[in-house]
Amino acid sequence: MSEVTRPTLSDALTERMLELIRTGGHRPGDRLPSTRELSQRFAVTTPTLREALRRLEATGAIELRHGSGIYVGADIERLVLPNPNMREIRAARLLELLEARLVIEPPLAALAAERAGDEELAAFRQVLDEAGRHLRGEDAELHDANMAFHRATARTAGNGVLHEVVDSLLTVHGPEQREILQIFDDRRRDYDEHLAILAAIEARDAAAAEARMRSHLADVKAVVERRLQSPQGDASPR
């Protein structure tokens, strides 16, 4: 019975925490009452409260700072959030995510070419310089830099909602993207394609930026499709 009622209590407590933030006029970075104060306010045990706090932290609504307290998170006002409870993504689902990226990201690259300022261009170059230092086996660092490049492209496009969509998609299938890096197994080619996209953005060539981003993502999708054609194609890509 407890296994049924416990999530319901956590759901209700999570909503009450969000209502506290909203009605209290709290902004990102504002400090919230302590765990003890919240437990007393909501008449729940500390473990139950901590479960709700962990769920809120997973979505970026709050930030738990060890030794300091509970703060309103930077993502409290986001319209689109990655699902922290997302289960293992199967191969077919991964293809759908890549198809979504093919629809969304190429036009954003075109907008980035039109709207990028000197500061944004410098940030692009810094991200790719970082990627270039990790082409020989440091795949965790390379993955982070690659994803930072795609996030920066979406952010530079200037549409906050679409930036959140891209950020959420990349977050949801982060493990699968790391697997793709292994399957693709041509880090230099991947890096060179990113450089080509940046060159188009720097040249303010929106059409080229869009075409190069589409070609790049199509390459990634082709790798996954080949994986799906293997005898284990109906299983998870991990």
UniProtKB/TrEMBL annotation:
One Pfam family here: GntR
Residues annotated as domain HTH gntR-type: 7-75
PROSITE patterns with a match to the protein in the record: HTH_GNTR
Keyword set includes Nucleotide-binding: no
Superkingdom of this protein's organism: Bacteria
Gene3D superfamilies, per database record: GntR ligand-binding domain-like, Winged helix-like DNA-binding domain superfamily/Winged helix DNA-binding domain
Record keywords: DNA-binding, Transcription, Transcription regulation
CDD domains listed in its UniProt record: WHTH_GntR
InterPro entries according to UniProt: GntR_C (IPR011711), TF_FadR/GntR_C (IPR008920), Tscrpt_reg_HTH_GntR (IPR000524), WH-like_DNA-bd_sf (IPR036388), WH_DNA-bd_sf (IPR036390)
Statement: the UniProt record of this protein carries the keyword Acyltransferase: no
Protein name in UniProt: HTH-type transcriptional regulator LutR
Organism (species): Nonomuraea coxensis DSM 45129
